[in-house]
Automatic annotation (TrEMBL):
SUPFAM superfamilies: Hypothetical protein YjbJ. Belongs to the UPF0337 (CsbD) family. This is CsbD-like domain-containing protein. It comes from Thalassospira tepidiphila MCCC 1A03514. Residues 4-55 form the CsbD-like domain.
Amino acid sequence: MNWDQIEGRWKQLTGDVKKQWGRLTDDDVDTIDGQQDKLVGKIQEAYGIQREEADRQVREWFNRL
């Protein structure tokens, strides 16, 4: 799977995203719309972590799909 596929399946993956990162709101998830940079940024903002850590979490989640 690649990010183009994630963008295409974003509506189906939102439940998994919210389970993984519970602090993200429905509005956050809608705004992200499957875009990797937006997902990393929203995680960084919601959890107060470094961008590198948020990026690592997204990569780990992506690899589990």
